[in-house]
Amino acid sequence: MGRKVLVLGEAREGALRHVSFEAIAAGATVAEGGEVVGVLVGKGVKNLGDELIHYGANRVIVTEHDDLDSYTSDGYAQALLAVIQEEKPEAIIFGHTALGKDLSPKLAARLDKGLISDVTALEAAGGNLVFTRPIYSGKAFEKKISTEDFIFATIRPNNISALEKDTNRTGDVKEFDVEIKNLRTIVKEVVRKATQGVDLSEAKVVIAGGRGVKSEDGFKPLEDLADVLGGAVGASRGACDAEYCDYSLQIGQTGKVVTPDLYIACGISGAIQHLAGMSNSKVIVAINKDAEANIFKVADYGIVGDLFEVVPLLTEEFKKL
Ligand code: FAD
After folding, report:
1. Minimum CA distance residue for ligand 1 atom 35
2. Ligand 1 pocket mutation, candidates 244, 268, 294, criterion most atoms within 8 A of CB
3. Is 269's C-beta closer than 6 angstroms to any atom of ligand 1?
4. Region at 230 (left for phi over 0; alpha for psi -120 to 50; beta for the rest)
5. How far apart are CA 284 and CA 264, in angstroms?
6. Residue 72 — left, alpha, or beta (φ > 0 → left; ψ -120 to 50 → alpha)?
7. How far are the Cα atoms of 31, 90, 159, 248 from residue 26, in angstroms, in the given order?
8. Does 274 contact ligand 1 (Cβ within 6 A)?
9. Ligand 1 pocket, 256 CB below 6 A?
10. Is the pLDDT of residue 197 over 70?
């Protein structure tokens, strides 16, 4: 049969986020031999089209407009609805990112369609497409089959493998003019916080600190370890509430959801709300001086000890590799 699937490529500061490539791979599964069409929305994003093709898109549509320079759900929804009207796809895939979480329900509601959000796995089985997604804050997973004629899904970063990049793949990258009107939100200026290089939601290694780090300075050994491993620093809400770090680092039910290859929890007790944001990490290491701490129940490796002794030792050992 084969479906036509649109996949939104998400750009940030002139580069595509890796989840865009994972979404292309998910799109290829949903397409079942049909066409995967990458969509880029923004300003100055056309040059990113080829990369979507190298990761498996058959072609790319670019909608550029001055009013799309910064993300607004209003502007992006207008652009995407115009593309949907033109292309008449049978499915749309987004990354389950801040942008995807904001935009996808709006579009699904406009089109009067259901939305399968936060998909962690996807397979074509027995003539059906089966979507796996977490429920009850990650304590269980459900498998869903769409009964609609149109599939709308967001995929969780770091769960569905991107296809191998192949620079020999070719395809059209075409501009599509859109009219953006009556925007209810205009972004005048974007003030960025100084952040470290690795994006927490997409990081392969996360070193997270809890109330056990005891102060803002207590994060320094965690940052050193993250630097050596090329990872990002995250935090529990306990650490954020205590003002040891910014809330943008919070992981958990009311923070970011991460699925890195390696998650090192330092001085984090393992409250259920924290586990909701990290328990699907591939390998979990817990460092806590309380051997009874709940975090050890989800950890693959546990170190009972003082994080201020253990973390610098780990950093020194990893430096030798
Ligand atoms: P604590 O529970 O105080 O644990 C600190 C740990 O550090 C202890 O286990 C202690 O043994 C250990 N420790 C202390 N010193 C050291 C040392 N030197 N070396 C090693 N270990 C040490 N929490 C989140 O994280 N994310 C969320 O998104 C979130 N959302 C929430 C939503 C709601 C509606 C509610 C009610 C709560 C939410 N929480 C969330 C809060 C959550 O319930 C916990 O309060 C919080 O996760 C605790 O943070 P913590 O583990 O850092 O602190």
Report:
1. 273
2. 268
3. yes
4. left
5. 6
6. beta
7. 9, 14, 10, 28
8. yes
9. no
10. no
Q: Which residues of 161-192 are buried (b: 16+ CB within 10 A; e: fewer)?
A: ebbeeeeebebebeebebebeeeeeeeeeeee
Ligand 1 centre distance from Cα of residue 295 (Å): 10
Distance 248 CA to ligand 1 centre (A): 16
Cβ-based neighbours of 125, under 8 Å, separated by 6 or more: none
Ligand 1 in contact with 238 (CB < 6 A)? Answer: yes
In tens, the pLDDT along 60-115 reads 999 999 999 999 999 999 999 999 999 999 999 999 999 999 999 999 999 999 99
- How far apart CA 195 and CA 187 sit, in angstroms, is 21
Ligand 1 mean position, distance from CA 264 (Å): 14
Task: Please work out whether the CB of residue 255 comes within 6 Å of at least one atom of ligand 1.
Answer: yes
Mean pLDDT score, 214-238: 97
Structure-token pair, residue 194: 């100084």
Ligand 1 pocket residue status of 309, Cβ below 6 Å: no
Contact 280, 260 (CB under 8 A): no
pLDDT at 194 over 70: no
Helix residue spans in the chain (DSSP H): 18-31, 49-54, 73-87, 98-110, 220-229, 237-241, 272-278, 307-320
Most distant CA pair in the chain: distance in Å?
60
ipTM of the prediction: 0.99
Give residue 73's identity as a one-letter amino acid code.
S
Q: Atom of ligand 1 at shortest distance to CA of 268?
A: 51
Other beta carbons less than 10 A from residue 50's beta carbon: 16
Please indicate whether residue 279, judged by its CB atom, sits closer than 6 Å to ligand 1: no
* DSSP state letters, 286-317: EEES-TT-GGGGT-SEEEES-HHHHHHHHHHH
The residue type found at 248 is S
- Residues 221 and 230: their CA atoms lie apart, in Å, by 14
